[in-house]
Write a structure and sequence with these properties.
Keywords: Calcium, Disulfide bond, Glycoprotein, Heme, Hydrogen peroxide, Iron, Metal-binding, Oxidoreductase, Peroxidase, Secreted, Signal
Radius of gyration: 22 Å
GO molecular function, one term: metal ion binding
CATH topology: Peroxidase, domain 1
Number of domains: 1
Largest sheet: 2 strands, antiparallel
Subcellular location: Secreted
GO cellular component, one term: extracellular region
Family: Belongs to the peroxidase family. Ligninase subfamily.
Structural class: mainly alpha
CATH class: Mainly Alpha
Number of helices: 14
Order of helices and strands: HEEHHHHHHHEHHEEHEEHHHE
Distance between the termini: 66 Å
Shape: globular
Number of strands: 8
Helix content: 25-40%
Strand content: under 5%
Strand order of the largest sheet: 1-2
CATH architecture: Orthogonal Bundle
Bound molecules: calcium ion
Length: about 350
Amino acid sequence: MQLKSLVAILPFFLAVAATPVQQATCSNGRTTANAQCCVWFDVLDDIQENLFDGGECGEEVHESLRLTFHDAIGFSELLKLQGKFGGGGADGSIMHFSDIETAFPANNGVDDIVDAQRPFAIKHQVSFGDFIQFAGAVGVSNCPGAPRLEFLAGRSNVTKPSPPDLVPEPQDSVVKILARMADATFSPNELVALLASHSVAAQDHVDPIIHGSPFDSTPGLFDTQFYIETLLQGDVIPGPDGLQVGEVQSPLQGELRLQSDGALARHPITACEWQSFVNDQSRMATKFRAAMSKMAILGQKRSALIDCSDVIPVPKPNAKTPSLPAGKTMHDIEKSCLIKPFPTLSADPGPETSVNPVPPS
Ligand code: CA
Ligand code: CA
């Protein structure tokens, strides 16, 4: 093309680039970049009120975030290479075929949130795969400090059950977990980032007697405490019935440490990425968002989906400074990254921290 004609075309491209994006107006005057996203405002209103108890960062949020992973991780490159069905990833299969998938041992207890969510998806006529990722993104937006997650809509409602044994379990070794995640296309660093979800999480089924025991002392905040507290020396058996499968000693009364979290925090492959989040909320949130964007479309084609991220609420910031729980000192940190100094943290004032269970709603 001659330079002259290029110059002639240039103003046209500039004019196109400058055209403002058409906004669609949806219910209650809210706007989105794509009219097909309007339905998600109605879903948003409904689940904030009727699933998340008016916009709390509580048990249903924890469970909804967990479900995003348990649906999506049903994806295997290896099985695909072997010519078998490797799972549809973030395809809603865990809701379609809940009788099959919630019977997998690693999905123990997931049936409650599947049953709680399904009527909303049916009522609003959205696909199960879309709904699960939307509920996770909206849910975590209720937790101060969380990033505003990407949400893409348009997953098909036609799929098959996930093959078994694709969901990692807390008693699995680090090597086994990293291999499973690699088979689902995730790097060790991306796994460490995904585990920020454990900053707003609690367990019900690893140790059922201490139902609702969280993984850090601030389960209502999307903060870095999870990465700090998993590195504290564990000297507490939180339940009256001893340690259960997948559970190791925790540092605080009322807090539960998964064996896998404790091991990943200390493993040479993952320890430095783990430590990098200890006092860096922004890094944690950014990396979590990127890893969640990838996970939410596992098995899907990004180009076939519509970006409805502007429906997701903007989370409040987390005002809490990273700290050691009251009663702990830097000597309690089991520093595991050998190539970088550990950031100095001060301890919260007051008597030794004990953690309350997350109340069932
Ligand atoms: Ca799935
Ligand atoms: Ca937390």
